[in-house]
Amino acid sequence: MTRIVECRISSCITLSSAPVARSRVEYVLFAEILAPPMNLLGPELVRDLVSLIQQAESDDRVQVLVFKSGDPDYFIAHVDVTRISQYREAAAALTGEPLLAMLFRHLSTSRLVTIAQIEGRVRGAGSEFVLACDMRFAGRESAIFGQLEAAFGLMQGAGGIQHLARLMGRGRALEVLFSAEDYNAELAERYGWINRALPAGTLVDFVNSLAHRIASFPPFARAVIKERVNGIALAPADDFRRDSDLFLDCARTPESQARTKSAMDRGFQTRNAEMNLERMLGELVEP
Amino acid sequence: MTRIVECRISSCITLSSAPVARSRVEYVLFAEILAPPMNLLGPELVRDLVSLIQQAESDDRVQVLVFKSGDPDYFIAHVDVTRISQYREAAAALTGEPLLAMLFRHLSTSRLVTIAQIEGRVRGAGSEFVLACDMRFAGRESAIFGQLEAAFGLMQGAGGIQHLARLMGRGRALEVLFSAEDYNAELAERYGWINRALPAGTLVDFVNSLAHRIASFPPFARAVIKERVNGIALAPADDFRRDSDLFLDCARTPESQARTKSAMDRGFQTRNAEMNLERMLGELVEP
Amino acid sequence: MTRIVECRISSCITLSSAPVARSRVEYVLFAEILAPPMNLLGPELVRDLVSLIQQAESDDRVQVLVFKSGDPDYFIAHVDVTRISQYREAAAALTGEPLLAMLFRHLSTSRLVTIAQIEGRVRGAGSEFVLACDMRFAGRESAIFGQLEAAFGLMQGAGGIQHLARLMGRGRALEVLFSAEDYNAELAERYGWINRALPAGTLVDFVNSLAHRIASFPPFARAVIKERVNGIALAPADDFRRDSDLFLDCARTPESQARTKSAMDRGFQTRNAEMNLERMLGELVEP
């Protein structure tokens, strides 16, 4: 029988942890993200992510880390554009660099296996976060993916370009990055954005079973495999740093600032308005 | 309401141009290719492509360039094998180098976003042309893709290898390149050759809507995104040059010349015979 | 009419060879693997593979080499874990290096076009073998793919990581490599592991037709195309060598040895037990 331990890391992340069957030493950790009202990636959530990663990595029993959302409509909405310097500062607590890109890349090189179990909307840096995880499984009915940056005159600064160009190839990556459109789970699977789209009724059991199976295998080989795969398919750290700089360059342009204002006027960063963000992004104006 | 401006660039390309809604400064340019009798890529079409690119790039209002065909059966058939030196000379007008490969690669690095809206057959260098575009959407019922070179003892000289090996991986690329078979739109989508196969009834509206949406977003971020994606997924210019040299090496072999002659005897480069080119290519002989 | 020549190379491989229609000089060679009781990759099969490759490469008439299995349930089960040093020694006969990785990579750079026609189970180094072939077509109803190494605390040592990370991208490759699960042909196709899954009723004709078509085209261009594709999509030899070393490092760990013993106790390397190997791998224990 599985013993579940629950705890809360600060305010945004609740953990539950289950030991692997037939073992007293391996654990799967489930991190549930819930930062009301809509799981914006602001300083609090970044701070809690840093704590979670530090805690999980320092506990040798934890093998696999599963991320899911406590909000059925939003996995991670995107960054809080009104607090860019604050969330960057919070990210620096993990790597010494104030870059979401490097916080996310840390996950990609962690000894922990990370799995994103995605339901609801995941856009912008939220998408870049799940792309940094080792695997991505999404609920076929509810998951929605988008890289919204281009609509704001912004470039993806937290690794999205590095991952998407490699996962889906030049043509599909340019479409996703230029269009700022929403992609449902089925299309995200077809494009290689995620591993698989699964019916909501089977997603949880599938991820649980996979996570426990992986956690039951010896960690040494897993670390070697991950290092070899990363050597082929994970971009060098400097490419992540450069993307982060270019994001900031874009954010300083008057066009980008005018478009952010236009979006805020239309309800950007509010729960209801972002239920159909795709349409709003097509209507932004510059004065 | 959208104002459409039409004009003709020399003989092979008709342009129509539509301003983006809510804007007086951004335009989408639609280039319709019609070089009777079957959209062969010969010196005239290359010359007109060069003019089109120069004109579109020099007009800051133009953001997105959509290529489509005025011939329902042929998007671009392939190069005119009887006029290789002439179309190469025409290509040199853009880049100073007499290489289709570099003409096409210029498109891949252009500030313009290029979208291929494909109906009908697109083979050989025609396929290499659409691969150089930023995105490819095809009519599910009519689009047919093929790299015919191997049947003639030729290598793909205009970038097809560079794109296909990256888009579809080693196994599928070798199949496509070795087999010289026809691939329908559904299979081309599954292999990653194109972004998506869409029903003919929705293709035009889909591309129009996507093109206008992209054109309405700020160009600065788009240029940065494209540069970053190209840094990952577009081969260096010297690889395109090398492919072009190897194509010429192959074209000089007696086997290749004998097979071209055998094909011409069977109606190669005529509209009717190429409706089922796949079969003809399996029947070529060397004396 | 096609003349079929049959012969047996030692004990594990039966050859049949068919001349290409309209030609007296090009041949397709069909190699049927049958090493009872379950097509384990042991020293005999490796020895026969080496003989086959040497014989086929030295005969200029042979253009295409098709691998299929004489056992409906197993294409290649995996290596014989009780005879690692022996099969490594047998592999050295081809390249001078006692590495399956280099034997397989030799195939990937051979002038021969290699096609794997897969029915039944293909796991571990069996999967790495088909990944080294130029193309992979699988029977939709029967083919089953798996990289079982992680369950034994092993890393894939014969090139599987190099191929899978490039074919399916980081997320799907990590899933396949970490999970040691079985993948049916449909999912293997979706992930890019194979070119296509085809109904059993059409697989043989499809592969025969493709093989003969390819063999009928001039070999010079084919060699150039393969070299250019390999320059993009085939890992350098040193990466294969490094993977092989890391495999041996893993195999020396006590965890790995304990898990191999636990598997042998449960019937590993017996025909019946491996019909549902996926489940057994989830039940291995370390004392």
Can you offer a commentary on this structure?
- 3 copies of one chain form a homotrimer.
- The first copy, chain A, is built from 11 helices and 11 strands.
- By secondary structure, the first copy, chain A, is α/β, with parallel strands linked by helices.
- In chain A, β2 and β3 form a beta hairpin.
- In chain A, α1 packs parallel to α2 (84-95) and α3 (100-109) runs antiparallel to α9 (237-251).
- Chains A and C meet through α5, α7 and α8 of A and α5, α9 and α10 of C.
Biggest interface and residues each:
A-C, 32 and 40 residues
Judged by helices, strands and strand pairing, the structural class of chain A is alpha/beta
Outline the biggest β-sheet of chain A: 7 strands, mixed
Spatial strand arrangement across the major sheet of chain A: 1-2-3-4-6-8-11
Oligomeric nature of the chains? homotrimer
C-alpha termini separation of chain A: 62 Å
Task: Give the beta-strand count of chain A.
Answer: 11
State the gist of this model.
The structure is a homotrimer of 287-residue chains. Helices cover 47% and strands 18% of the residues of chain A.
Any key phrases for this structure?
homotrimer; 7-stranded mixed sheet; alpha/beta; 11 helices; 4-stranded mixed sheet
List strands and helices in order, with pairings.
Three copies of one chain form a homotrimer.
Chain A: E1 5-9, E2 13-19, E3 27-33, H1 43-58, E4 62-69, E5 74-76, H2 84-95, H3 100-109, E6 113-118, E7 121-123, H4 125-132, E8 135-139, E9 144-146, H5 160-179, E10 183-184, H6 185-191, E11 196-198, H7 200-215, H8 219-233, H9 237-251, H10 254-265, H11 277-281
Parallel strand pairs in A: 3-4, 4-6, 5-7, 6-8, 7-9, 8-11
Antiparallel strand pairs in A: 1-2, 2-3, 9-10
Helix pairs in contact in A: 1-2, 2-3, 3-4, 3-9
